[in-house]
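User:
I would dearly like some help making sense of a protein record. Take your time, and here it is.
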Amino acid sequence: MKYEHLLAEHSQHEKNAGPQDTPEVARSLTEELQKLRAEYGTLLDRLARQQAEFDNARKRAARELQELRDYAPAETVELLLPILDNFERALRHADNPEDFRFGIDLIYRQFVDALHKLGVEQVPARGERFDPQKHDALEVVDTQETEDNQVLEELQPGYRLKDRLLRPAMVRVARNPRK
């Protein structure tokens, strides 16, 4: 763009050349024009390379994101596989009720430990004040024995992963009509 303007200027200059113009001025303008063309070519090449690098970076980021999505569960699965193994062992001993019960208790503790390692924690419920952000009231029970809006019973535990609620606890809540 810049050199085209100089080329037009150079052509116009040649048409209007007077006695004061010399071949040296023309040569100087030609050299300037060649330098600008070379610079223009260099800049175009640099721009093309930058665009290619950007496109490659975008594709690489998309590929890495897809790979993350595909293999994100790997750590969780690795923690759960020993629990599956122990379930299979326990099922082989289902004919002996004491051994079976002991095995199931161990598996339960192993599973809770695996969840804890993943950052999953149980939401406190029983005896807590009802909080609709973490509890789901399935029943409200009139009672004079506890304070109003206190969780009487946990019907199903709730869980959170770090600060995110995965599932609210399903609870029975006290309603104390005395005021």
Residues 73-118 form one domain. Residues 23-71 form the longest helix (49 residues). The first strand starts at residue 120 and ends at 123. The chain is about 60% helix and 20% strand.
